[in-house]
Amino acid sequence: MLCKSIQQTMEEQGVLETFLRDHPKADPIAKYCFNNDAVAYEPITNYIIGTPPKNFLVLFDMGSSNLWVPSIYCQSQACSDHNRFNPSLSSTFRNNGQTYTLSYGSGSLSVRNTIVNNQEFGLSENELSDLFYYSDFDGILGMAYPSMAVGNSPTVMQGMLHQPTRQYGGELILGGVDPQLYSEALDSLCPGVPPRFAIGNQATGLCSEGCQAIADTRTFLLAVPQQYMGSFLQATGAQQAQNGDFVVHCSYIQSMPTITFIIGGAQFPLSPSAYVFNNNGYCRLGIEPLWILGDVFLKEYYSVYDMANNRVGFAFSA
């Protein structure tokens, strides 16, 4: 299932310009899927909480570690428009009394931790209406390391590592891999190997000793550090528009260079059609000034996150 972008929804509702004006230094939309060509989350209709079970749609986020869903305690417009958990209707609900605040871009929410079947999760008590109201998902399932968990909450991934897990078919598989979904060996599955990159057929000389990078499903764009942006813009012929976008002439896309990431000795190329977005004749680079392999990269390859062995792997999709 493809998510409808928050940006597109806010544009349709006529509130995007006001939101960006009120939050000039933030770009929260980039964290949650920009267009319908990218899969930013995989809804699991049988992801259930409570007894009897209640279904929630969650965003699988590699950039955070907490699991939370809206609760009946939350009266903001963002919560009222989504599925909400009612603790009084669950016979297995147990409250540990902890509260904390989570921040996402310029959006934030306050949650109360609870324990259901020995798995802690958060119940939101307040959500930023002008951001979460326009999201298709109800809550967020953080899949990053425990050290990133706010409130020291045990993560879902921690629980899975210590008990037999069930595999879910589709784009997301928990507890294993499906060799039918990738065409070559996962040669890049190795701990801590910094990526290098080339533009076209030429090595850039940048990151020659490797650079640290993050593979983050919450980030839609391909993020490139500011010190390397000049090389990218020169190679692609892009210009920065007044709104901050890096734009190119749409007729030039086919002649633009391929960007190749070298990870664990394996090459992973991105064609111009993968990193340039054409929105009715308005073409922009899917790049921002950081070092994050967001959905622009991840949607092109089969990716594996081996938390037990601190490894990340990529392979060509079948």
UniProtKB/TrEMBL annotation:
It holds the Pfam family A1_Propeptide. PANTHER family: BETA-SITE APP-CLEAVING ENZYME, ISOFORM A-RELATED, PEPTIDASE A1 DOMAIN-CONTAINING PROTEIN. Belongs to the peptidase A1 family. Residues 43-315 form the Peptidase A1 domain. The lineage of its organism: Eukaryota, Metazoa, Chordata, Craniata, Vertebrata. GO terms for biological process: proteolysis. The keyword Protease applies. It comes from the Eukaryota. InterPro entries: Aspartic_peptidase_A1 (IPR001461), Aspartic_peptidase_N (IPR012848), PEPTIDASE_A1 (IPR033121), Peptidase_aspartic_dom_sf (IPR021109). The active site is at residues 61, 216. Keywords: Aspartyl protease, Disulfide bond, Hydrolase, Protease. This is Peptidase A1 domain-containing protein. It comes from Rhinopithecus roxellana. GO terms for molecular function: aspartic-type endopeptidase activity. The keyword Protease applies. Disulfide bonds join 74-79, 250-283. PROSITE patterns: PEPTIDASE_A1.
